[in-house]
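Rotation project, supervised by the postdoc (A.L.). Task for the rotation student: set up a whole-complex structure prediction and record inputs and outputs verbatim in this book. Inputs entered:
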Amino acid sequence: MAKVSFRNVWKKYGDMPAVKDLNIECPDGSFLSVLGPSGCGKSSTMRMVAGLEHITSGQILFDERPINDLAPKDRDVAMVFENYALYPHKSVYENMANPLKLRGQDASVIKERVTAAAKLLEINHLLERRPQELSGGQKQRVAIGRAIVREPNLFLFDEPIAHLDAKLRAHMRGEIKHLQRTLGTTMIYVTHDQLEAMSMADTIAVMHDGELQQLGTPREVYNHPVNAWVAGFVGEPAMNFVDVGVEDRAGRTHFTHQNFSVPVTEEQQRRVSNGSRESALRMGVRPDALSISMTKPSESCITGKIFVTELLGGDMIVDVDLDDCRIRVKTSTEFAGEEGQTCYMTVNTNKWHAFSKENGKAFF
Amino acid sequence: MASRDVIQYETPLSKAFRWFSAVFLAFYVVWTVLPLFVMFMSSFKDLLEAFKLPAVGDWAGVTVFFDFTPTTKHYYELFAHLGFSTYLFNSLVAAGGSALVSVVLGSMCAYSLSRIDFKGKGDLFFWIISTRMAPVVAVMVPLYWIFRQLDLVGTLPGLILAYTTFNLPFAIWILKGFFDNVPYAIEEAQMVDGATRFQALRAILPLVAPGIGAFIVLCILFAWNDYLFAAIIGSGGAKTLPAATRELVQPQNIQWGQIMAAGVVTTLPMMFLGLVIRKYLVTGLTMGAVKE
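Outputs recorded:
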């Protein structure tokens, strides 16, 4: 087990930077999720840790020991690949035994470890089979099994459950998190699925265009996104963004729009006026921070027209047209509005956000 | 997975085509198998019996062909007096040795070409292939001169080297395609598991076994059936079966019986090899392990 540190790590393919000046500290035994869309540099980051790619500049350290120049086999990491990368000509048992065999373990030790890992993953009845005889979920378990048979410094999981169906994915999220807690091994988990990152990780590193956007706990990333990009990427349904004007009325800052004018709180007013002289900015509000009703509750509400309603079992999503954009509101299934009707939305001003229009940075 | 069945619907045309194919294949089988059959039968016949033929158009007279007293004297003659056991050994060593050298060097070279990107890779690859494009006769004279200087003429190592010259580019060409089809992730997984690069290469060799099998067959066939190299570079100390068979055609008489027996001795090992290696030629070993 090890602490992993990234110090000013760069990865360039030719002149194209894939990872730019990455700095992350991942404490021993913690679960770090690297989250971002495809092409954001998250896989390059993981492959640099595994030793499958050279580090262009900067350092990666395990417990203060630089590992830049170590071959993969000397780094003692265990990796689960997105495409499983099982050995097709070997049985499940031989697949899982491979890392131990390569490290020269005794046959009896190998048998004991493989059996224990197989039992933990509930694949002990599959040990004689070949990979092509397994289902996607089983292959994925074998790939995890191959990683956990030894006690590595670090687990690297590269989108291991991306190819599974939705139900199995939800199940495996819980299993992997439990496994990591049980074994207590440091884990770096790469994913493009914000739900996986939110639900499993201790710390999330959100990446975009090769740059680390935000490093924080799932709560911090969700509740206090540092910029509009993170705010829009994390959370499902996604955050609504509305371009608003900033006006002072009777000493209080209001966010104004054709459809509404809402005052900010005192604390928020201080942050906006300290941070910028912009007369316009982007307001961000999550669908669950809005409440919708068919009667006008107050003067400072948002007026719109219902575009469509989507019933999601326990919740309902209402798409509402404003004059220049469309926003989504999460409400209860009792909501009785019909398409085309005028509706009124109240913002929970403790849970909204404001971002600079210029650079996307968050004021609050 | 969807059904693998190829759906076909019967039409008059397809029916006619099926008949045509059956007739064509029947002729083709006769065309290819009959000479081998005649060779096999004649090798067990005395010279007089071998030339007993029915008159043209006398189909009932075909039985004459089977009317003989089997004798193994031609085989006895070949191995007891004409030294064919040595020639058989030479053929085996030359073909097997060249196949082995080509497979070892070829798979390493093909692996590098498949996995590593470097400047001029395309040109290098084409150059390797182009060495195979020249006809053997074209390079024979300079090659002979070089081999003479190195004292390799008439030796088995010389013959192995000569065959390898032609087999190696072929090996690289075939095997590169097979290595290209093995997902790199499998080696990466091996390396993360604790393998060196070389161990990772060894670990994926079973996945290119069909390619290696196919290549070994083709390589051995090339060397085994070769006459030109055998006659010129192997002549003297490293005579192989085809060269030795040629010598049975003597100015005074042609030893038909022994030639037929030599033909059987030359053909049988190759047929046997084909049967043995057949299972390696079945591809599709990587299916299902790596999700694309």
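Student's summary: The radius of gyration of chain B is 24 Å.
Supervisor addendum: Chain B is about 65% helix and 0% strand.
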